[in-house]
Amino acid sequence: MTQLLANLHEAQGQLTTDIADEAWIARFDQLADRGYVIIRDFLPKAEVAALYRYTQALDDQDWSLAGIGREQQHTVNTRVRSDKIRWLRPEIAAEAVYLNTMDELRIRLNRRLFMGLFDYECHLARYQAGAFYKKHLDAFKGRSNRVLTTVFYLNPEWHVDDGGELVIYGDRGEVLETILPQQNTLVVFLSDVYVHEVKTAHRERFSITGWFRHNTSNAYRVDPPK
Ligand code: OGA
Ligand code: MN
Question: Which residues, by Cβ under 5 Å, contact ligand 2, an ion?
């Protein structure tokens, strides 16, 4: 057996016995079957704690009022959403940690589900007490390059009384999931399939919303625009 084949066999052996990988395969299968998956304990504890501390240390001027739609369609409508956001940038070390993790996830998704995900963009979101985001879709079929939405929660000790649940609806308007925004939970769903909403938060709520995207560049237009 060549060294190459030996290495390959060893790698395959590790793949089937590695409990972490098995867990990932189960999650990806769930995503493929249902179109969404809820992942608890997504990051190492120290990493999510550091991210939470980082958001706490940001000043008011580090946040801006969230809009609806992209580019020309961008409008601020506080009747639909009243959160504040901050796009994450790789130049900032504390933000790069999360971006790198999501890029690893992107590669795993492509490998397992052949999704052809091209890139990832995300922003921190801060819902102050009283803030919400009414029912919406993150993407409209054929009109967006957003393929998968990810929402990651940062607040430790979030209780039922604190509100701010993410509700995911089925195609007949029925509630599929009501998710408390608990620290270290990641929700992933198909952006153009699931209508969802954020119920009014009764205390300050921190999350990171992001999108894995397809590349829709052509000869006339470079994609993705920011
Ligand atoms: C969004 C969104 C859900 C959440 O930002 O588009 O739907 O639970 N966020 O924060
Ligand atoms: Mn959304």
Answer: 138
pLDDT (tens digit, 9 = 90+) per residue, 198-222? 999 999 999 999 999 998 666 666 6
Q: Are 194 and 168 in contact (CB under 8 A)?
A: yes
> Cα separation of 122 and 138, whole Å?
13
Report the alpha-carbon distance of residue 199 to residue 167 in Å, rounded: 8
Instruction: Note the pLDDT tens digit of each residue in 28-75.
Output: 999 999 999 999 999 999 999 999 999 999 999 999 987 766 544 556
Q: Which CATH class is domain 3-69+76-213?
A: mainly beta
User: Which residue has its alpha carbon closest to ligand 1 atom 9?
Assistant: 209
Cα(19) to ligand 1 centroid in Å equals 30
CB–CB of 101/39 below 8 Å? no
Q: Whose CA is nearest to atom 1 of ligand 1?
A: 209
pTM: 0.86
Query: Is the separation of the CB atoms in 95 and 89 below 8 Å?
Result: yes
What does the block give as tokens for 51?
A: 């991210």
Side by side, the strands of the sheet bearing 175-179 are: 133-136, 196-198, 166-169, 175-179
Domain boundaries, the chain: 3-69+76-213
